[in-house]
Amino acid sequence: MATIHFYLVRHGQTRLNRSRRLQGTTNSPLTKKGKRMAKRLGKELQNIRFTAVYTSDLKRTHETAELILSENKRGCPPVYRDPDLRELSFGKFEEANNMAVIPTALRTLGLRRILRAFANDEHVAELTELFRTMDGEEEIETSVHLEKRFRRALETIAQEYPDQDANILIVTHGLILSNFIESLKGEVPLFLVDNSRASLIDYKNGNFEIKYVNQIKQESEKID
């Protein structure tokens, strides 16, 4: 059975990231720093021969993927867009300043619940549920639905390469990626995985296995 090596990447810094605003389904261009971050990651992954690249349908992921590939020395793979890789929508909190959300959170949830959520081993899932509660209209996906959507995307992609080991670059978003890694019992930083850092997860026989999370890997891991 083939092994699919998924290189999972959060897009580079955007203008909304820089201004510390919530960014879900809103399109926001990469900053100069975000572009540098993507090219830096590209250099770190330059010796990996990617079979294919998949991004979400939001522009910042596609732009990040192109910058990563611009540094690759192992060929130019096809690039596909998959809506299932898109970020969680923050509903009425889209583009809200991070600090401006705090009064609403305190009023709706209370300090104790917020602190308990961040102390939880599954703090990304808890964070998702907190936003869902604050929104009040249940337009925001549950953490379970978010995880299933991302898992479905990866499993569908893996089915495209049933008879060969493959390196697949996935460029997606911070919360949906962090939520998926957490569902596999991986350790996720308090404020989600970093922009333009790779996490490697293998998929074989219907199972996902974490190799590393949110790291810079200097060694070559190519498959010819």
Automatic annotation (TrEMBL):
SUPFAM superfamilies: Phosphoglycerate mutase-like. GO terms for biological process: negative regulation of glycolytic process; regulation of pentose-phosphate shunt. One of its GO terms (cellular component) is cytosol. GO terms for molecular function: fructose-2,6-bisphosphate 2-phosphatase activity; isomerase activity. Keywords: Hydrolase, Isomerase. It holds the Pfam family His_Phos_1. InterPro entries: His_Pase_superF_clade-1, His_PPase_superfam, PG/BPGM_mutase_AS, Phosphoglycerate_Mutase. This is Phosphoglycerate mutase family protein. It comes from Ligilactobacillus ruminis ATCC 25644. The lineage of its organism: Bacteria, Bacillati, Bacillota, Bacilli, Lactobacillales. The gene is pgm.
